[in-house]
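Title: Prediction job returns without error message
Component: structure pipeline
Severity: low
Priority: P3
Assignee: unassigned

Description:
Job completed but the reporter wants confirmation the result is attached to the right record. Sequence as submitted:
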Amino acid sequence: MQVKIAKLVNSKFFEYFIIATILVSAILIGMETISGLTETQASLIQRANQVILVIFVIEAILKIYAVAPKFGRYFGDGWNLFDFSIVVLSLIPFAGQYAMIGRLLRLLRVARLLSALPELRLIVSTLLKTIPSMFHVVILMMVLFYIYGVAGYHFFHETNPQFWGSLGTSLLTLFRVVTLEGWTEVMYLDLANHEWAWIYYVSFIVVGTFIIVNLFIALVINNLDEIKEQRVVLEQTQKTEEDILHNIVVVRQKLQELEMGLANRNQQNKS
């Protein structure tokens, strides 16, 4: 029984069914924002949400039972913990002034798409793994902003105080420049008073936008390759474990058949 349930929860059919349920839940959450819903429509949406919650509870129970008694295989997976936490939070009754909290918690069901789709799991895992690596790049970015911010204040604060009147304003201006959003308007204001201002802007964009952004991209791609390799190894391990479990089940069945055959022969010999 446990082996059959394990095959079910790991099957593509079960995966697609849960994804479809999450999508339906997302549609229902969006429908709740429609103004002018009748009481009947609101009641139907509420009942549908309850059915979806029951499906998620059954899913969690089946997945936990499939790995029993090794519950660490379920709770040791961060994505399973994420799904389980959403289910538990959804079971908490919120009424009255706390009804809004309950509606907001239902939004977490949509976030389950991150755990339901393998490719999204891969992307999120990559981003999370990249965060520690980005620390030094962020420090480099902060140093760059500080140097150019102070320099920009001294260069342009007298002629263009709107964008360079203080260090804080200068840093905000640099953030606007590094996003490449309307930075030419700021540059032309300074070019009207300083012919060499283009050197300041172009150098900052080259270093701040192209080099730093490429560093972030390089870190993400590097971690993505590492996670892909880890996933391949994990899938191979899981397949090996599944093959071992399948072989154990087959051996048990054959032993039972042999025992039954020997028992029948003993009875025939006695008779």
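Comment from assignee: result matches the submitted record. The CA atoms of residues 78 and 115 lie 9 Å apart.
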